[in-house]
Protein backbone atom coordinates (compact mmCIF):
# COMPACT_ATOMS: atom_id res chain seq x y z
CA UNK A 1 0.00 0.00 0.00
CA UNK A 2 1.36 3.47 -0.91
CA UNK A 3 1.56 6.38 1.50
CA UNK A 4 -1.22 8.13 -0.36
CA UNK A 5 -3.51 5.09 0.03
CA UNK A 6 -2.72 4.87 3.75
CA UNK A 7 -3.50 8.57 4.16
CA UNK A 8 -6.79 8.07 2.34
CA UNK A 9 -7.71 5.20 4.69
CA UNK A 10 -6.83 7.32 7.76
CA UNK A 11 -8.92 10.23 6.53
CA UNK A 12 -11.84 7.91 5.87
CA UNK A 13 -11.62 6.70 9.48
CA UNK A 14 -10.63 3.13 8.64
CA UNK A 15 -8.37 1.70 11.39
CA UNK A 16 -6.86 5.11 12.03
CA UNK A 17 -4.46 4.11 14.82
CA UNK A 18 -3.08 1.09 12.99
CA UNK A 19 -2.73 2.98 9.71
CA UNK A 20 -0.99 5.92 11.39
CA UNK A 21 1.44 3.45 12.97
CA UNK A 22 1.99 1.79 9.57
CA UNK A 23 2.57 5.18 7.90
CA UNK A 24 5.00 6.23 10.61
CA UNK A 25 6.97 2.99 10.68
CA UNK A 26 7.17 2.61 6.90
CA UNK A 27 8.60 6.14 6.59
CA UNK A 28 10.80 6.09 9.68
CA UNK A 29 14.14 6.19 7.79
CA UNK A 30 12.97 9.26 5.87
CA UNK A 31 11.61 10.90 9.02
CA UNK A 32 14.98 10.34 10.73
CA UNK A 33 16.65 12.05 7.78
CA UNK A 34 14.30 15.04 8.16
CA UNK A 35 15.07 15.47 11.88
CA UNK A 36 18.80 14.72 11.76
CA UNK A 37 19.86 18.42 11.80
CA UNK A 38 17.93 18.92 15.04
CA UNK A 39 19.50 16.03 16.98
CA UNK A 40 22.25 18.38 18.14
CA UNK A 41 19.70 20.15 20.34
CA UNK A 42 17.56 17.32 21.69
CA UNK A 43 17.68 13.54 21.85
CA UNK A 44 16.44 11.71 18.78
CA UNK A 45 13.72 9.80 20.65
CA UNK A 46 11.97 13.04 21.69
CA UNK A 47 12.26 14.44 18.18
CA UNK A 48 10.82 11.25 16.70
CA UNK A 49 7.84 11.52 19.02
CA UNK A 50 7.31 15.10 17.98
CA UNK A 51 7.66 14.18 14.31
CA UNK A 52 4.68 11.85 14.75
CA UNK A 53 2.54 14.90 15.54
CA UNK A 54 3.86 16.61 12.41
CA UNK A 55 2.99 13.51 10.39
CA UNK A 56 -0.52 13.56 11.83
CA UNK A 57 -0.90 17.23 10.89
CA UNK A 58 0.28 16.43 7.35
CA UNK A 59 -2.34 13.68 7.10
CA UNK A 60 -5.05 16.17 8.08
CA UNK A 61 -3.93 18.76 5.51
CA UNK A 62 -2.87 16.59 2.58
CA UNK A 63 -4.80 17.11 -0.66
CA UNK A 64 -4.54 14.21 -3.10
CA UNK A 65 -5.54 16.31 -6.12
CA UNK A 66 -2.35 18.42 -5.87
CA UNK A 67 -0.26 15.63 -7.50
CA UNK A 68 2.44 15.83 -4.79
CA UNK A 69 3.81 12.77 -3.03
CA UNK A 70 2.67 12.60 0.56
CA UNK A 71 6.12 12.46 2.18
CA UNK A 72 7.27 15.48 0.17
CA UNK A 73 4.28 17.32 1.62
CA UNK A 74 4.77 15.84 5.10
CA UNK A 75 8.41 16.94 5.32
CA UNK A 76 7.33 20.54 5.94
CA UNK A 77 4.92 19.60 8.73
CA UNK A 78 7.39 17.26 10.42
CA UNK A 79 10.14 19.88 10.42
CA UNK A 80 7.71 22.55 11.59
CA UNK A 81 6.55 20.39 14.49
CA UNK A 82 10.12 19.60 15.57
CA UNK A 83 11.22 23.24 15.29
CA UNK A 84 8.27 24.40 17.36
CA UNK A 85 9.02 21.78 19.98
CA UNK A 86 12.65 22.90 20.21
CA UNK A 87 11.70 26.55 20.46
CA UNK A 88 9.12 25.97 23.17
CA UNK A 89 10.47 23.07 25.19
CA UNK A 90 13.90 22.15 23.93
CA UNK A 91 16.01 23.77 26.61
CA UNK A 92 15.96 25.56 29.94
CA UNK A 93 16.61 28.87 28.22
CA UNK A 94 14.77 29.75 25.00
CA UNK A 95 17.20 30.40 22.16
CA UNK A 96 16.02 31.98 18.88
CA UNK A 97 16.12 29.83 15.75
CA UNK A 98 18.77 31.93 13.98
CA UNK A 99 21.05 31.65 17.02
CA UNK A 100 20.53 27.88 17.10
CA UNK A 101 21.65 27.73 13.46
CA UNK A 102 24.82 29.64 14.32
CA UNK A 103 25.40 27.34 17.29
CA UNK A 104 25.22 24.37 14.96
CA UNK A 105 27.75 25.91 12.54
CA UNK A 106 30.08 26.73 15.44
CA UNK A 107 29.82 23.18 16.84
CA UNK A 108 30.62 21.69 13.44
CA UNK A 109 33.54 24.05 12.87
CA UNK A 110 34.92 23.39 16.35
CA UNK A 111 34.67 19.65 15.87
CA UNK A 112 36.33 19.79 12.46
CA UNK A 113 39.18 22.01 13.69
CA UNK A 114 39.69 19.84 16.77
CA UNK A 115 40.05 16.77 14.52
CA UNK A 116 42.39 18.46 12.06
CA UNK A 117 44.64 20.21 14.58
CA UNK A 118 44.47 17.86 17.55
CA UNK A 119 43.86 20.76 19.94
CA UNK A 120 41.09 23.08 21.06
CA UNK A 121 40.61 25.79 18.37
CA UNK A 122 40.64 29.50 19.20
CA UNK A 123 37.61 31.71 18.43
CA UNK A 124 39.29 33.36 15.40
CA UNK A 125 39.76 29.96 13.73
CA UNK A 126 36.18 28.96 14.49
CA UNK A 127 34.89 32.29 13.14
CA UNK A 128 36.83 31.93 9.89
CA UNK A 129 35.52 28.41 9.25
CA UNK A 130 31.91 28.96 10.36
CA UNK A 131 31.34 32.36 8.73
CA UNK A 132 30.40 34.00 12.02
CA UNK A 133 32.19 37.02 13.54
CA UNK A 134 34.67 36.45 16.38
CA UNK A 135 32.46 38.43 18.78
CA UNK A 136 29.45 36.29 17.91
CA UNK A 137 31.49 33.09 18.34
CA UNK A 138 32.49 34.19 21.84
CA UNK A 139 28.92 35.24 22.70
CA UNK A 140 27.38 32.04 21.33
CA UNK A 141 29.96 29.87 23.09
CA UNK A 142 28.67 31.45 26.28
CA UNK A 143 25.13 30.36 25.32
CA UNK A 144 26.39 26.85 24.68
CA UNK A 145 27.48 26.40 28.29
CA UNK A 146 25.17 24.07 30.13
CA UNK A 147 22.84 25.35 32.82
CA UNK A 148 23.44 23.95 36.29
CA UNK A 149 21.37 24.11 39.43
CA UNK A 150 22.32 26.31 42.36
CA UNK A 151 21.65 23.25 44.52
CA UNK A 152 24.58 21.40 42.93
CA UNK A 153 26.88 20.17 45.70
CA UNK A 154 30.47 21.38 45.41
CA UNK A 155 31.86 19.74 48.54
CA UNK A 156 32.53 16.01 48.63
CA UNK A 157 30.34 15.52 51.70
CA UNK A 158 27.46 17.49 50.08
CA UNK A 159 27.59 20.06 52.87
CA UNK A 160 28.24 23.01 50.51
CA UNK A 161 26.20 23.92 47.44
CA UNK A 162 26.81 26.42 44.66
CA UNK A 163 24.13 28.68 46.17
CA UNK A 164 26.11 28.83 49.43
CA UNK A 165 29.00 30.49 47.62
CA UNK A 166 26.90 33.39 46.29
CA UNK A 167 26.74 36.64 48.18
CA UNK A 168 23.36 37.20 49.81
CA UNK A 169 22.79 40.82 48.86
CA UNK A 170 19.30 41.39 50.24
CA UNK A 171 19.47 45.15 50.12
CA UNK A 172 19.46 45.46 46.31
CA UNK A 173 15.97 46.93 46.27
CA UNK A 174 16.75 49.44 48.99
CA UNK A 175 20.01 50.41 47.28
CA UNK A 176 18.17 51.00 44.00
CA UNK A 177 15.52 53.16 45.65
CA UNK A 178 18.25 55.18 47.43
CA UNK A 179 20.05 55.75 44.12
CA UNK A 180 16.84 56.91 42.44
CA UNK A 181 16.07 59.37 45.26
UniProtKB/TrEMBL annotation:
Residues 23-86, 103-169 form the RNA polymerase sigma-70 region domain. GO terms for molecular function: DNA-binding transcription factor activity. One of its GO terms (biological process) is DNA-templated transcription initiation. Gene3D superfamilies: RNA Polymerase Primary Sigma Factor, Winged helix-like DNA-binding domain superfamily/Winged helix DNA-binding domain. InterPro entries: RNA_pol_sigma-70_dom, RNA_pol_sigma70_r2, RNA_pol_sigma70_r3, RNA_pol_sigma_r2, RNA_pol_sigma_r3/r4-like, Sigma-70_RNA_pol_init_factors, WH-like_DNA-bd_sf. It holds the Pfam family Sigma70_r3. NCBIfam families: sigma70-ECF. This is Sigma-70 family RNA polymerase sigma factor. It comes from Eubacterium plexicaudatum ASF492. The lineage of its organism: Bacteria, Bacillati, Bacillota, Clostridia, Eubacteriales.
